Amino acid sequence: MSKPAFLITIDTEGDNLWQNHDKITTRNATFLPRFQSLCERYNFKPTWLTNYEMAIDPVYIEFAKDVISRDTGEVGMHLHAWNSPPFYDLTGDDWRNKPYLIEYSEELIRKKTEYMTLLLEDTFQRKMLSHRAGRWAFNAYYASILVELGYQVDCSVTPKVDWRRSIGNPQGQGGSNYFDFPQHAYFLDLNDIAKPGDSSLLEVPMSTQLRHSPLVNSFKRVIKQFRGKEYQPSVNWLRPSGGNLDRMKSVVNEALSRGSDYVEFMLHSSEFMPAGSPTFKNEEQIEILYSDLEELFSWLESRTTGMTLAEYYLKFKGK
């Protein structure tokens, strides 16, 4: 029996987009080789899900072309609607509000997705096969466009997470609600992306875990309701946040114990750079991150097999 896949997904984007509202820089591209080297030491293969500003950055292009040429990773597509051509000001201050792609018209959803796909394919001379939506916002129409463009894998779904309180367009309804979505890989139903179907697009949801037991969550929900507030359960991710190594291992153990044939890790490219994110603000915190990554990867080396998203697709389809 083959080992489960370890899927490393990196949202490859500009520096500290959480706080930068009037400019986008891409200095984090110079910090990526260190992480790539770490992955290669453990025979793991990242998927660099790349957005517009990185796709036109010469340093990143050189780095990613080298990764592709040595077959030590994959480049996929990641789309932030507010700063990806063709440009359209949806909210009057899109760089601050960061509206979701699914809040734009269907015409703009199509045009932006087509533009990013062609840009990446022309730049890297590779068919784009893997995708993650910007800010995790995904729907059936978006999925249908990906199918038309020949994508094989999407990894936008975050089970147990409801993004509706995370606002894009101030006049909108917030992000996607994935709370009850499957926690396993499945081919999408293009009429209802929460259900398995017969499309050619494989959904590979993020590895997540409710932090508390159902009993504790029920108790917390009652207290919140008594106070007139909405309760949203806390969720552990297979995602470093500084000192959360045990929680990441718990996510892996739960996934494997329920028979999952993969675990999926994520981070942003800017989180490898000091002050590139709110999470890792200085060199000391970056070193803590790498210490956790070393231990996590060493622990996973004997338990999993490193794959890109496109490689996992082939494995899944061949089952």
Question: How would you characterize this protein structure?
Answer:
The chain has 319 residues and is an alpha/beta fold. The chain has one domain (5-317): Alpha-Beta Barrel (TIM Barrel), CATH 3.20.20. Helix content is 35%, strand content 16%. The protein has 10 helices and 12 strands. The chain has helices spanning 32-41, 52-55, 58-69, 94-97, 106-124, 140-148, 214-226, 245-257, 283-301, 309-317; strands spanning 5-12, 47-50, 74-79, 130-133, 153-154, 186-189, 192-196, 202-203, 208-210, 235-237, 262-268, 305-307. Strands 1, 2, 3, 4, 5, 6, 7, 8, 11 and 12 form a 10-stranded mixed β-sheet that branches. A two-stranded antiparallel sheet has the order 9-10. Strand 4, helix 6 (140-148) and strand 5 (153-154) form a beta-alpha-beta unit. Helix 5 runs parallel beside helix 6 (140-148). The longest helix is centred in the middle third of the chain and has 19 residues, at 106-124. It is globular and about 50 Å long. It starts with a strand and ends with a helix. 44% of the residues are buried. Residues 215-220 have low confidence and may be disordered.
CATH architecture: Alpha-Beta Barrel
Number of domains: 1
Question: Kindly, what is the distance between the CA atoms of the first and last residues, rounded to a whole number of angstroms?
Answer: 12 Å
Helix coverage percent:
25-40%
Can you tell me the overall shape?
A: globular
Mean pLDDT: 94
CATH class: Alpha Beta
In total, the number of strands is 12
